[in-house]
Amino acid sequence: MSGTDNKKKKILIVEDDGGVSSFLRLELEHEGYETGTAADGRTGLELCTGGGFDLVLLDIMLPALNGIEVLRRLRRESEIPVIVVTAKDDTADAVTALDAGADDYITKPFAIEELLARVRRMLRRSVPEKGNMPAGKLAVRDIELDPEACRVTRGGKEVALTRTEYMLLLCLLSNRGKAMSRDQIIDFVWGTDHFIEANSVDVYVRYLRSKLDGDRKDGSLIKTLRGIGYIISTEEA
Questions:
Q1: What pTM does this model have?
Q2: What's the confidence (pLDDT) of residue 134?
Q3: Chain-centre distance of CA 172, in angstroms?
C-alpha cells in the first residue's frame, strides 16, 4: 500500500515504552499514515474520544489507566477499531481485551510486517457496501438486522453492537439455518487475509450472545454445533 493510499488515515499509538512508541510511529509514518501518541491510558482515552483517529494501537500495561479499562470506557461511546498489543503468550489478557471490545490483538515481540498487515486489514474492514448487502432486512423471531441502517433490534429495542459483533450477526443471519464453521465465519467477518485464531470466534459469539440474550430464559438463538461451528436457530423456543 502506498503512502498516497494511507495519507488520510490517522493512527493513535497508546504505549508507555518510548522506544516502542517511536519505532511504531516511524514505521507507520514511513507507510504514509499520520500518527498521534499517548504514554498513558488516561491521555490515550482522551485522544480516542476526541475524534480524528481511524485506528488505535493500544498497549495493555499502561500507567494511569490500563488498556483494558481504556477499552471498556472507549466502547461506551466509540466504535473506532482497536488493535491491542499484549505480552507474548498472555492468552488471558487477549481474551479479556476481546471481551472488552478489541477488534484484534497482537503479541510482543511482533514482526512489524505483521502489524502493518493487521493495520491495513483493519482499516479496509467495514460493513458491506450497499451493492453487496443482503436485500431487505434480515430477521429471525424477534431479532431484526437492517443492513441499510446498520441497525439491530430485538423485540423492537435497539441492541448496541461493535463492528465485529455486527458482522458476526450479519454472517449468521445471512446464512440462517445453515451450519457455519469457524473458518467460514472468520472469512466473512475478518476477510481471507486474517490473522484471527479460530478460538477467537468463540469469544465473539459469547459476547454477542450476552448482548442479544441479556437475562432472557428462553435460550440463545445462536446454537453451538460441537466440532463444527455455529448456527442461528430459526425455530421458535
A1: 0.65
A2: 58
A3: 17
